[in-house]
Structures are given as structure tokens and as C-alpha cells.
Amino acid sequence: xxxxxxxxxxxxxxxxxxxxxxxxxxxxxxxxxxxxxxxxxxxxxxxxxxxxxxxxxxxxxxxxxxxxxxxxxxxxxxxxxxxxxxxxxxxxxxxxxxxxxxxxxxxxxxxxxxxxxxxxxxxxxxxxxxxxxxxxxxxxxxxxxxxxxxxxxxxxxxxxxxxxxxxxxxxxxxxxxxxxxxxxxxxxxxxxxxxxxxxxxxxxxxxxxxxxxxxxxxxxxxxxxxxxxxxxxxxxxxxxxxxxxxxxxxxxxxxxxxxxxxxxxxxxxxxxxxxxx
Length: 277
Known about the structure:
By secondary structure, the chain is mainly β. The protein has one domain (8-38, 53-262). Helix content is 9%, strand content 24%.
């Protein structure tokens, strides 16, 4: 049998990272937690790298490699969405959200891709790669199911018909230093935040990424899903750079001793299904 690359304790840390507030009184490091949990010096104020035409670059460059991590990953509402009582739920969606809070059987904990904004809340961060020759931007999920998201930058429209997927179909454009991404075509097999806010295949997101300096990306989000909500709503977070960190092989499940964090009020989980509600 292949020896696991991640020690058992790391799996427990991962699940606590996904669900919990800090278990000690110590505040999280200002730049999040990296692959080894160490803090890294901040370089805020230094300018963002720029392309030949003067636009701020989101992705890595030959001279500047790293991943992006959320500024406050442990807070309950890291995406800065409206408080639960203020969300424009349809009645069925509010009831399902309450059930998910009591039974946190999130697909992410079973290595399913994290669609929509959920990917920016995963441990170990994301890596953004701009491929200007192909007019595409790729977002790699480091601590997750070995998957990546494609943003098409060639001016194409969304297809009129296509099979829904975890990441949907994303098209992007630049507005100055801000990348604006329009995504439709999501399936219903993931949670788009850690609390389990429901969505349908009518989910439509608008994301805005603005790199304000070398270490900082401001992320703004609009959620529009007429199948689950009565009105659109917005959120935001700050992504911080962890310079020098690169993609690595992420293996888990073999030594998962924290299964109680995936059971909630139940006593067991039926693992025959590839997904959960």
C-alpha cells in the first residue's frame, strides 16, 4: 500500500480548518496558514507585477511564485455574505440550510470539487495561472480534489446548451486592473460556502478580482440564483499571497480519524453515493 503523504494529524487540522472557529484564544496569523502552518513576512505596499501593457497580473510570474489564501479563514462567514436572517431564502432553501448546519455532510470533505467561491476557502490556498497566448486563466485548488477551473478570456459567450459541472462555464474580461468573471452552468453537487447555502442549476455568479498590491487581491462576489433565492446578494473577502509556496501532491482519506465532523446529528454516513445532498 502506498504510504500516505499527509500525516493523520493533518487531516484533523484540515477538517477543523474547514468548519471551525479557532480552538484556542489565539488569533490566526494575518496572512493565513500555509502548507506548514508558518507565518510569512508581509510585503504590503509593494506594487503588483504588471504585464507588458501595464495591467496588474493575478497569476504567478517567473520571478514571483506563490498561492493565495483567505485573510480570515476561521471566521464563520469568511465570504462576507449577509447574515443568515437577512439572506433572501426561498422557504425550501432556508429549511435545507438549517438541515445542513445540523448535519455538515459537505461534499468537499469527500474530495469533491469546490465550485464557485468555496474554492477560495480551502486549506493551502489556490494558485492562479494566466496563459495569455491561449487567452485563459486557470485556478488550481491546492488542498482539494486535484482539480482546476478554467476562465476563458477570448471574448466567447456562454454556450447555449451544455452539461452542468462543479465549476460551471466561466468567461472573463479585464476592467483596468480588475478581472470580472461571469459563470453559469453549475451543477448542484457542491456547497458554494462552508455553511451549506443551497443553490440550484440556475446559479449565476459575478466575481471581481482586483490585485491592489504585491500581496493582496480584493475579491467581490454577486450570487444570483432565482431557483433558491428571491433576490441577488453579495459578499467579499481578501486574498493574501504566500510567496514561494508551490503546488504539491495532496493525499488524504486513508488516515481520516475525524469522521465525526462529517456526521453531524446522525450516527453514520452512507458512503455508497458519490455525493451528498
